[in-house]
Design goal:
With 294 residues, this protein is mainly alpha-helical. Helix content is 71%, strand content 5%. The chain has helices spanning 22-29, 35-63, 69-91, 97-106, 114-136, 152-174, 183-203, 209-219, 225-247, 253-260, 263-293, and strands at 3-7, 10-15, 18-21.
Length: 294
């Protein structure tokens, strides 16, 4: 996570890629030429998440129960942790429509980017379920439905509550008040595992509309979609209200970078490094030629 500095009349965002005015960071994020990379990152990250989350249930069904409940809820949490660490700087690693909407409602992410992010997440999730269908012949074992002995209403309430906790964790670890950097990945992944360990039997502990809708779209049965769309989105918005009560308005510098990523900085650093290597190579060649002539 970046460090924050101030000069009279300006707010600066700094980190491993240097220090730049926050206004420049915002302007770079609005650069449409970088949007394709961000959307690909969201699609790819969500593909990996859904592949693991749905795949664990599918493999459990195919193997006759070899993947325990603890394994099935741990795998997605670990995958989210990994994705945030290796790709979070590119797009913010939302991986979840409820998270994108919450970041926008909090003021950390532009609303006009939300439809593209959600579309990319849905594409990634459906592709993952399509692959699982092609390999194993079905994805029913990975769908989220109310568990035996639980009603749809109970699953709906639990989805709201679990997502309040998840989005509160995401917004809190991204904020200036915490500013814990890479440890945010550990907190978010750990929360997903914790939520699943106690609440998965109720309704799957999805907390993510795409994770639940993607297998239902492949199966062709959206009967429980309302639980896993309305519940997480409502839970995320409640978490935004809680964040306001705890820390006031959003839009602080670390939260903006966490929600939007640092793609422009990464590319600039890459171009700068290549330029330096090219100049260094040219200087070495010139020196070598001079020595030969001498």
């Amino acid at each position: 996570m970046s460090e924050i500095g101030r000069r009279p009349g300006l707010e600066f965002v700094g980190g491993s890629f240097g220090t730049r005015p926050l206004a420049q960071v915002q302007q770079d994020f609005r650069n449409p030429t970088l949007e394709t990379r961000r959307l690909f990152a969201e699609a790819f990250g969500t593909f990996l998440l859904v592949l693991v989350a749905v795949g664990a249930g599918v493999v459990n069904a195919v193997s006759g129960g070899d993947v325990s409940l603890a394994m099935r809820v741990t795998a997605p949490g670990l995958m989210v942790m990994v994705i945030i660490l290796f790709m979070g700087a590119t797009s913010g690693a939302h991986l979840n429509p409820a998270v994108s909407i919450a970041f926008a409602a909090r003021g950390d992410f532009p609303w006009r980017r939300v439809p593209g992010y959600i579309a990319a997440q849905l594409v990634g999730g459906v592709l993952a379920c399509g692959l699982l269908w092609a390999v194993f012949g079905h994805v029913a074992g990975g769908a989220t439905v109310p568990g035996p002995g639980f009603t749809g209403e109970q699953a709906f309430v639990i989805e709201i509550l679990l997502t309040v906790g998840l989005v509160s964790t995401i917004l809190g670890t991204a904020s200036k008040a915490q500013n814990i950097g890479p440890l945010a990945a550990l907190a978010v992944g750990g929360y997903i595992i914790l939520a699943g360990l106690w609440a998965a039997p109720v309704g799957g502990a999805s907390m993510n509309p795409v994770r639940s809708i993607a297998p239902e779209l492949v199966i062709g049965n959206l009967g429980y979609a309302w639980i896993y769309v309305i519940g997480p989105v409502l839970g995320g918005l409640i978490a935004v209200g809680i964040a306001y009560l705890l820390r006031g308005p959003g839009g602080d510098e670390p939260a903006v970078q966490a929600a939007q990523g640092r793609l422009s900085e990464i590319l600039a650093e890459s171009r700068s490094g290549n330029s330096h290597r090219t100049k260094g190579s040219g200087t070495s060649r010139a020196r070598s030629e001079g020595e030969r002539e001498g």
